[in-house]
Design a protein that fits this description.
Number of strands: 0
Strand content: under 5%
InterPro entries: TMEM205-like, Xanthocillin_Biosynth-Assoc
Oligomer: single chain
Largest sheet: none
Main location: membrane
Protein name: WGS project CCBQ000000000 data, contig 00041
Subcellular location: Membrane
Structural class: mainly alpha
Keywords: Membrane, Transmembrane, Transmembrane helix
Helix content: over 70%
Number of domains: 1
């Protein structure tokens, strides 16, 4: 037996650990950065620069994948964590995942239904009658949209909290 075998063995496992850390940190960075950038930079700019109908089409096409990513990626991050997950880290991932799932499974269909109803009424009615029927729908849309924004912020904060736990765990292994 070679005297170098134990060292090679340790080097292999430290390489695997570092590779895993790299992949997880890359996934976390893309997930957190992408969600934060789209929610708080790209979407507000698109809202200001695009016509209402164009913005609606953009959001209609992005949100299903966006909310699926918000629901699924915390599970992937938890399953591939290069550190032992504490209760706080698990709670932050669960919070992020549940808020994304609620946005996707509950609020997305509700807001789409309200928008379709508003379009239908706008095609059928006009004037005062349209205003009377549309006012409660606008209010409902505003409420569901506000709740969606709250869940989105909860998702971002849950992911941020996990990032703090992740960085504390990974930094323990960096030589001083």
């Amino acid at each position: 037996m070679s005297a170098f075998k134990p060292t090679a063995h340790l080097l292999f496992y430290s390489f695997v650990y570092c590779s895993t850390c790299y992949v997880v940190l890359k996934l976390f960075s893309k997930r957190f950065g992408g969600t934060t950038f789209y929610s708080y930079v790209a979407s507000p700019i698109a809202f200001k620069k695009l016509e209402r109908e164009q913005f609606s089409i953009l959001q209609h096409n992005i949100f299903p994948m966006f909310f699926q990513m918000q629901a699924i990626s915390p599970v992937i991050l938890g399953l591939t964590a290069p550190i032992a997950l504490t209760t706080g880290a698990i709670a932050s991932l669960v919070t992020a995942s549940v808020s994304g799932a609620l946005n996707y499974l509950v609020l997305l269909p509700v807001t789409r239904g309200i928008k379709e109803e508003r379009k239908k009424i706008a095609n059928e009615l006009s004037g005062e009658e349209l205003e009377l029927k549309d006012a409660p729908l606008r209010k409902s849309f505003g409420q569901s949209h506000g709740l969606s924004l709250l869940l989105n912020m909860t998702n971002v904060l849950g992911t941020l909290a996990y990032g703090i736990y992740l960085s504390k765990g990974v930094f323990k292994y960096i030589p001083k």
